[in-house]
Structure to design on (157 residues):
């Protein structure tokens, strides 16, 4: 490979790595419980969290710069707040009250334009397991921030 091409590739790679690091910083600023994972099933960096009574999960980046969040057993009221603040109510056919009032069941949506995937399992025990995949980093940061605020309010109650 020609030296100027090698340099250009090196510069691109360094810039890409900086972008991945900046995304991780944005995720942890929005949701401080996230910590780097030792093992992941994603292509890029993965952050995990676990907090009794609040749930557990991961946030990761793929090699195309898209983010995925997979959280389990998060209080329904917190998920409801985060989703309503981010996308509004009934975006996923969960009803006009949003996920905070959704009946148990599975709600999903696939965006044909962006290939993003959204899936929410509302459980009988008042928790939600959800995955939001292949979305822009800033969308995940907004969800994480709203979720953190809702969980913080839940902790104080």
């Amino acid at each position: 490979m020609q030296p100027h091409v090698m340099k250009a590739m090196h510069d691109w790679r360094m810039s890409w790595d900086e972008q991945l690091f900046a995304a991780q910083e944005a995720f942890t600023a929005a949701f401080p419980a996230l910590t780097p994972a030792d093992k992941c099933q994603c292509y890029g960096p993965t952050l995990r969290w676990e907090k009794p009574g609040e749930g557990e999960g991961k946030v990761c980046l793929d090699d195309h710069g898209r983010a995925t969040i997979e959280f389990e057993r998060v209080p329904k009221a917190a998920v409801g707040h985060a989703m309503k603040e981010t996308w509004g109510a009934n975006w996923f056919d969960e009803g006009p009250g949003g996920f905070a009032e959704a009946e148990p069941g599975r709600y999903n949506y696939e965006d044909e334009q962006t290939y993003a995937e959204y899936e929410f399992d509302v459980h009988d025990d008042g928790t939600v397991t959800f995955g939001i995949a292949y979305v822009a980093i800033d969308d995940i940061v907004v969800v994480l921030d709203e979720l953190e605020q809702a969980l913080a309010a839940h902790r104080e109650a």
Q: What stands out?
A: Helices lie at 3-30, 76-87, 137-156.
